[in-house]
Specification:
heterodimer, A: mainly alpha, MetI-like fold, 76% helix, globular, B: mainly alpha, 13 helices, flat
Chain lengths: 268, 286
């Protein structure tokens, strides 16, 4: 009995320590972001601040380029979602539903591109985009982000379609729905949450990406590219608020799609 | 049913994605090689690589990239394994804790660097806590340009914090494939917790451990924003040099040469990874 109590204490003790480890940087950035201007350079800083204020955040949002950069980030991320789903969802469906020549090879391509350093390729791509007149353009950034997000979209959506029984769709097809009708009426509806999760994951991939976005733009910066470019010049307080704004939506989104995270990283 | 269109359907569905990836990976890859070997006037040369090797930062970038890799990867695989075993014990409330452990997955490398900068900067929270506790009497400059150990430690902590969740998901998926009966049987025969881990769980988890190691190794070659956020250019790494040569020094050929090095290292790691994968999943190898 005593051993079991000790055991449980150990389990919850270590679980709690690990939870603190996972959460503490997020807590620190939140209290940094809400530090009143007057207390920004206080030392030692209290771990539990007595006063909070959004005034520094307001200053950040009013400083030039921040709001346009956020809008650019959102536009690029939405483009990434559209391209990723339009290209990725049909491919994922085919992978999950059909046995065809080259299927295994395509699966291997998906798994390899998941790890391939696509962002580094932004350097040679920049020269190509200059020639195409797409340099310093959000479309070029979105294209690279789509290539990065595509394998993840295929894995998430593929996982969803694999889990759905095929019999119903086949039955609907034989009963006169046709191939497309059977897909639209039977296979698609239960897959919608998975498609939404894939869209959110693609959004986060793009929202977080900094290397390609920095290389491919000069004035049309996304938020991370803007933050990276001003790392050596901007004051600490503003860096922390920028980090807070980069992290907040991504964390919310990841919590929303928690059920699908295992498909992304668990599948080999 | 077996009409021509029905047979072509899967290819029609897969083709756009394949073509897109081919265009966005193979063309820039060829262009990268072209740029990296391009001479000033015309023709090809090894000059860009010679200049890259001669650059004062190159050997540092090479050393730092591998030093970080060797410190971060084993540390976070061990940490992720511990967390995966804990979560897989399915204690009451393990789902909530698991959710918390996966949150850092959402944080980008740049943001992770800035998060930990709030802790490690001169008037940051680490110094604040230490000073309030009376451990130090004045702020320690953890991230000073000449404090190599401090810079490395900060980057190792930030990167381990950010990417351990990824390894955790890989290992947990592997753990869930191991039938519980095996461990229970071993327990019945008197095997203690450590022996069950070493002789039953770890051998069966080997494929997952291998993939986790490879994925993290490949990503480690791309480390740069977390380093920039914490150390600026005081601690050169390969991907960071590629960025600086492009954005700051505006020499796309040297940048491309660095890019070729990163891509070559990644491809080498991927080949090793596929070899390992191929031995247990013949389907993919075909």
């Amino acid at each position: 009995m005593n051993a079991r109590v000790l055991d449980r204490g150990l389990v919850y003790g270590s679980a709690a320590v690990l939870a603190v480890w996972a959460l503490i940087p997020l807590y620190l950035i939140a209290i940094s972001a809400f530090t009143p201007q007057a207390n920004v350079s206080d030392y030692p800083k209290p771990l539990f601040p007595s006063s909070v204020s959004a005034a520094t955040i307001q200053l950040f949002l009013e400083s030039s380029g921040v709001v346009p950069a956020m809008l650019n980030s959102i536009v690029v991320a939405l483009l990434t979602v559209v391209v990723g789903l339009v290209l990725g969802a049909p491919a994922a469906y085919a992978l999950a539903r059909f046995r065809f020549r080259g299927r295994a090879a395509f699966r291997a391509v998906v798994l390899v591109t998941k790890m391939f350093p696509i962002a580094i390729l932004a350097i040679p791509l920049a020269a190509i985009f200059v020639r195409l007149g797409l340099y310093d353009n959000l479309i070029s950034v979105a294209l690279v982000h789509s290539a990065m997000a595509l394998p993840f979209v295929i894995l998430i959506v593929g996982g969803v379609f694999v889990a759905l029984p095929h019999d119903l769709e086949d039955a609907a097809e034989t009963l006169g729905c046709g191939r497309w009708g059977a897909f639209r009426r039977v296979a698609l509806p239960p897959a919608v949450p998975g498609l939404a999760a894939a869209a959110i994951f693609a959004f986060v991939v793009s929202w977080n990406e900094v290397f390609a976005a920095s290389i491919l733009t000069v004035r049309t910066r996304t938020l991370p590219a803007q933050v990276l470019a001003s790392l050596s010049t901007s004051p600490l307080a503003l860096k922390f608020i920028a980090a807070f704004f980069m992290v907040l939506p991504a964390v919310v989104f990841i919590i929303l799609i928690r059920r699908y995270l295992r498909t992304v990283w668990g599948s080999r | 049913m077996h009409t021509r269109t029905a047979r072509l359907l899967p290819f029609t569905l897969v083709l756009p994605a394949m073509a897109f990836l081919a265009v966005l990976i193979l063309i820039p890859l060829a262009q990268a090689l072209f740029l990296a070997f391009a001479a000033d006037s015309s023709g090809f040369t090894l000059d860009n690589f010679r200049r890259m090797f001669a650059d004062a930062n190159f050997s540092d970038a090479w050393r730092n990239t591998f030093l970080l890799l060797l410190l971060i990867v084993p540390l976070q695989v061990a940490l992720a394994l511990a967390i995966a075993l804990l979560v897989n014990s399915r204690f009451r409330g393990h789902r909530w804790f698991f959710l918390i452990y996966t949150i850092p997955l959402a944080v980008s490398d740049l943001a992770a660097g800035l998060l930990w900068l709030a802790a490690f900067t001169e008037r940051g929270y680490l110094n604040s806590v230490l000073q309030s506790a009376g451990v130090i009497s004045q702020p320690v400059l953890w991230l000073a340009f000449d404090n190599f150990g401090g810079l490395i430690a900060a980057i190792v902590i930030a990167e381990s914090w950010r990417t351990t969740a990824m390894v955790l998901l890989v290992l947990l998926a592997g753990l869930e494939l191991i039938p519980r009966e095996l461990s229970e049987t071993a327990e019945l025969f008197g095997a203690g917790r450590l022996r069950r881990l070493v002789h039953v769980v770890l051998p069966l988890l080997r494929p997952s451990l291998q993939s986790a190691l490879m994925i993290r190794t490949i990503f480690a070659f791309q480390t740069f924003a977390v380093v920039f956020a914490l150390a600026g250019r005081n601690l050169p790494v390969l991907a960071g040099e590629a960025y600086s040569w492009y954005a700051t020094n505006q020499d796309e050929r040297i940048a491309a040469a660095y890019g070729v090095v990163v891509v070559a290292l990644s491809i080498a790691a991927i080949i090793v990874y596929l070899r390992l994968l191929g031995t247990r999943e013949p389907e993919v190898q075909r």
